[in-house]
Design goal:
Elements (H helix, E strand, L loop, with lengths): L2 E8 L5 H11 L5 H13 L15 H6 L6 E6 L4 E6 L7 H8 L4 E7 L6 H12 L4 E7 L8 H15 L6 E6 L23 H7 L12 E3 L2 E3 L11 E5 L4 E2 L4 E5 L4 E9 L2 E3 L2 E2 L3 E6 L10 E3 L6 E12 L11 E6 L2 E14 L6 E2 L10 E14 L10 E5 L6 E10 L2
Parallel strand pairs: 1-3, 1-4, 4-5, 5-6
Antiparallel strand pairs: 2-3, 7-16, 8-9, 9-15, 10-14, 11-12, 11-16, 12-13, 12-15, 17-21, 17-23, 18-19, 18-22, 19-20, 19-21, 22-23
Length: 418
């Protein structure tokens, strides 16, 4: 069954937790005892309705303060699809959490309050979704019950958001009017909004086409582990395990291994369930070759006539994630890109990007926590990469502080720096 990963983002009190709670409740993903606990808590809090937000706001302190922190992952399924929800907080100070939660998402839901319209936070969430190259964006205009399910108000919000989204690189944008509290257009069509001709949110999540979002053109297989069993029975077995990051692998394909440049042919593609006729992203497989080649973790198997950029000089957008340090020119870090890890130095900070106004501050001298900027890096050994806009797997990396081993940044490659 196909899986859809989606991220949710919204400002405080936009009803994000209620929306997720409604999806879980109406798809019968929660247990009766959980529901009873939520109903009891709702009564204790004096809520007029069962507060479905309590299904997702799991921390008591968080509930009492009425805020959402960190990234929570939720799972549910329908007969058509499995789903993973990355519930990300909306505040500016949690930009890193949204980057983390949304980095692997196929779709993002940006929630806003129909009464308040498009806020600065809504724009920031849309920009981050665009920066992270999330292929599908849904603007869920919530609390339609509080504007009397008014079509004109929905169209106003839609036009305002569309004007802003025109500045961004968003491939697929959908608008859905909802009331998470009452369930309008979340799982079932709303009888209160007969003027809306589109599908309810869950139907859109079930049907949105994501198969073609994967890069099936550029074959990329970063080697994670070399399998050489130490038993006599398998003494001549040599396999290369990893996750396909792009393209399609088939037995008989000619390949080249980076960085050595050695060429061979794929002998077989194997999994625990047996051999495969083909493998594509994001499948985890073991590849065997016709020739014995010296291959190790961090090498990459590609096609001879379709190779990634091989370089030590990289231009990238970086989100800084560490509260105890800043990113400054000259900083020395460890970079982890696919299965390859090496050292890197920050050669230049080109600009700091204001994620609310999209203004570029070229005079900036550092990136602090939750700030995003364009940076030039030089790595100790070459990396094999594609631009992030072409392949999110081979175009992304993380930065690690080599003294504390803490992840301090996440990057999206723009290309080779000149």
């Amino acid at each position: 069954m196909e899986m859809l990963r989606f991220a949710t983002a919204g400002s405080v009190d936009d009803g994000k937790s209620t929306l997720i709670g409604r999806l879980l409740y109406d798809t019968k993903t929660i247990f009766e005892d959980q529901m009873e606990a939520v109903e009891r808590a709702s009564i204790q809090m004096g809520s007029e309705y069962t507060n479905l937000a309590l299904l997702t706001d799991g921390l008591r302190a968080e509930r009492e303060q009425g805020i959402t922190i960190d990234v929570a992952y939720r799972y549910f399924a329908t007969p058509k699809r499995k789903f993973i929800i990355a519930d990300t907080p909306g505040h500016t100070q949690y930009t890193r959490n949204m980057v983390t939660g949304a980095s692997t998402a196929d779709l993002a839901i940006v929630l806003l309050d129909a009464r308040k319209g498009v806020l600065e936070q809504s724009k920031r969430h849309a920009f981050l979704a665009s920066l992270l190259r999330i292929p599908h964006l849904v603007l869920a205009v919530n609390k339609m019950d509080l504007v009397d399910y008014d079509e004109a108000r929905f169209e106003e919000v839609k036009d305002e958001f569309r004007d802003f989204a025109a500045k961004l690189d968003i491939a697929d944008l959908t608008f859905i009017p909802v009331s998470a509290l009452h369930g309008d257009n979340v799982v079932e069509r709303s009888s209160n909004m007969g003027w809306y001709e589109g599908p309810p949110l869950l139907h859109h999540l079930e049907e949105v086409h994501i198969a073609s979002d994967r890069n099936l053109i550029d074959t990329r297989f970063p080697v994670q582990y070399v399998i050489r069993p130490q038993s006599d029975e398998f003494h001549d077995y040599r396999g290369y395990a990893g996750t396909v990051s792009g393209g399609v692998l088939r037995p008989g394909d000619e390949i080249v291994v980076l960085p050595s440049g050695f060429q061979s042919t794929i002998k077989s593609i194997e999994t625990l369930d047996g051999p495969l006729d083909e493998a594509f992203a994001p499948m985890a497989v073991t590849v065997r070759l016709d020739d014995e080649i010296d291959i190790s973790r961090g090498d990459m198997i590609v096609r001879p006539n379709n190779q990634p950029t091989v370089s030590q000089d990289i231009d990238a957008m970086i989100c800084w994630m560490n509260e105890r340090s800043t990113l400054t020119p000259g900083a020395k870090l460890v970079i982890k890109h696919t299965t390859r890890t090496t050292k890197a130095i920050v050669k230049e900070l080109s600009y700091l990007l204001d994620i609310n106004t999209l203004h570029r501050d070229e005079a900036a001298t550092q990136l602090a926590l939750n700030e995003i900027g364009r940076v030039r890096l030089r790595t100790q050994t070459p990396l094999f990469f594609d631009e992030y806009r072409r392949n999110r797997e081979t175009g992304s990396f993380i930065l690690i502080d080599e003294t504390t081993n803490v992840t301090v940044g996440a990057g999206m490659i723009l290309g080779e720096s000149s």
